[in-house]
Automatic annotation (TrEMBL):
<dbReference type="InterPro" id="IPR008557">
    <property type="entry name" value="PhoX"/>
</dbReference>
<dbReference type="Pfam" id="PF05787">
    <property type="entry name" value="PhoX"/>
</dbReference>
<dbReference type="InterPro" id="IPR006311">
    <property type="entry name" value="TAT_signal"/>
</dbReference>
<protein>
    <recommendedName>
        <fullName>Tat pathway signal sequence domain protein</fullName>
    </recommendedName>
</protein>
């Protein structure tokens, strides 16, 4: 297939190359976008009410937990080490990816499913629970919270145990959570009794309904996030590989698409994206650059029984790699995915501090929508996009994963960056302070509450206020 470079897509609203961050309350944040941000909102609910400005400067929190703009407030829903309300041990550590689901007949009540990215040395492990534990040696997993319409915690329980390095994942159209293991550890490594590197399905309303069953046909690799095409049932998957050969972007073609809870266990075909002539996505620098004729190659060995998938032979034409593929979500008729950064010193073909890509299945077209530096004001390599979600009030919410102070940033339709939240929990020392990253940003189904995690110390916040919608 031919690869046709296309001119930059004209934005429907201005998106400046260098934004004056002081005007948006994010002076010194070091995050600047180039590209047409309106691409991200086409066909989504957010397109009907796009944000145009921020919410003003952050107000220091007298309790030293979370700074927010004036008029906003937070509630601490859960903290690591506190007793789970179910009595199943303590709240596990390393709060990561998360999603919110409506409670059936709940009148505004919400289910939250939260990942715990515990490795073999995780501080507070997920307590093994009968019927919900995959590998007794695994310390990761998920917890589920049920909240009433005022964000008061009604229940908190183990939803999955015995997994490892549960990083991100994504919701399904049938209101379950797919949690992803970001590891390729085999049985016998770190004391594990089973192979790891799989996706598991979690029913937030009834975790015993889904149990602890690995969806092996979806591949065994360093999973990060997923997004489901709600019309076709195709599941897109990102691979977060820090070292060469870098990760791949996958799609899973299920035997029972959109079959509901448990249907993914029926299996399917796992494929990896090939952009002809583009072996490394980091080499694409201009926003709006598009490539037609994207191909999908069958993965030779999805279980990686002998060789990790990204090392496998995909035949003539090879396969397309990218460093640090992380966030993934569906919007309109496209899937979007994030490359958090690329560093030539670590083997990437070029440098950047974040890319957001759009793939249109109907056109088989891949487009670079947004670039974060390094030819902008970005200075610290860690200040890159990680978890991203569309805000019902318009624009994006982006979790920062970098050095120094940690923020949740908003991005307006005009490309302006503003600070929405700043973490105040110092996990370092007074002389050398350090703050835990944010993760798992998501919104309640009614758009009235933003939920977000602080990774360390594990804390889940509910943020309410004058969201513009």
């Amino acid at each position: 297939m031919s690869v046709t470079p296309r001119p930059a897509i004209p934005p429907t609203g201005p998106a400046s190359r260098r934004e004056i961050l002081a005007r948006s309350g994010a002076l010194g944040a070091g995050i600047v976008f180039t590209g047409a941000l309106t691409e991200l909102f086409t066909g989504t609910a957010a397109a009907r009410s796009l944000g145009h400005t921020g919410y003003g400067p952050l107000v220091p929190d007298p309790d030293g937990l979370l700074d927010l703009p004036a008029g906003f407030r937070y509630r601490v829903l859960s903290r690591e080490g506190d007793p789970l309300r179910s009595g199943e041990g303590p709240v596990p550590s390393n709060h990561d990816g998360m999603a919110a689901f409506p409670v059936r007949r709940g009148r505004g009540a919400v289910h939250l499913v939260r990942n715990h990215e515990n490795r073999a040395d995780g501080r507070v492990p997920v307590t093994p629970v009968e019927g919900l534990t995959y590998d007794p040696a695994g310390r990761g997993g998920c917890t589920a919270l049920t909240l009433d319409s005022r964000d008061r915690v009604l229940s908190e329980r183990i939803a999955l145990a015995g997994t490892a390095v549960n990083c991100a994942g994504g919701p399904t159209p049938w209101h379950t959570w797919l949690t992803c293991e970001e590891t390729e550890d085999r049985a016998g490594t770190n004391g594990y009794t089973k192979d790891h590197g799989f996706i598991f399905e979690v029913d937030p309303a009834d975790p015993h309904r889904t149990g602890a069953v690995p969806l092996t046909a979806m591949g065994r690799f360093q999973h990060e996030a997923i997004a489901v095409d709600p019309r076709r049932g195709v599941v897109y998957e990102t691979e977060d590989a820090f070292d060469k050969p870098f990760g791949l972007f996958y799609r899973f073609l299920p035997e029972k698409p959109l079959g509901g809870t448990g249907s993914l266990r029926a299996g399917g075909r796992l494929q990896a994206m090939r952009v002809p002539g583009v072996p490394d996505l980091s080499t694409v620098r201009e926003t709006g650059a598009a490539f037609d004729g994207v191909e999908w190659a069958d993965v030779p060995d999805p279980l990686a029984t002998a060789t990790p998938i990204r090392f496998q032979d995909f035949g003539p034409g090879g396969i397309t790699h990218a460093q640090k593929l992380e966030g993934c979500y569906w919007g309109g008729r496209s899937v979007y995915f994030v490359s958090s950064f690329a560093r030539s010193a670590q083997g990437s073909a070029a440098d950047h501090h974040g890319q957001i890509w759009r793939y249109e299945p109907e056109r088989r077209r891949l487009t670079l929508v947004i670039v974060f530096g390094p030819d902008t004001d970005v200075r610290l390599p860690g200040e890159s996009p990680d978890n991203i979600c569309l805000a019902p009030s318009g624009g994006l919410m982006v979790c920062e994963d970098g050095n120094g102070a940690q923020h949740v940033y908003g991005v307006t339709r005009r490309g302006e960056v503003y600070a929405m939240a700043r973490g105040r929990q110092n996990i370092g020392t007074p002389e050398e302070p350090e703050w835990g990253e944010f993760a798992g940003v998501t919104f309640s189904p009614d758009g009235e509450t933003m939920y977000v995690n602080c990774y360390t110390p594990g804390t889940t916040f509910a943020v309410t206020g004058p969201w513009r919608g």
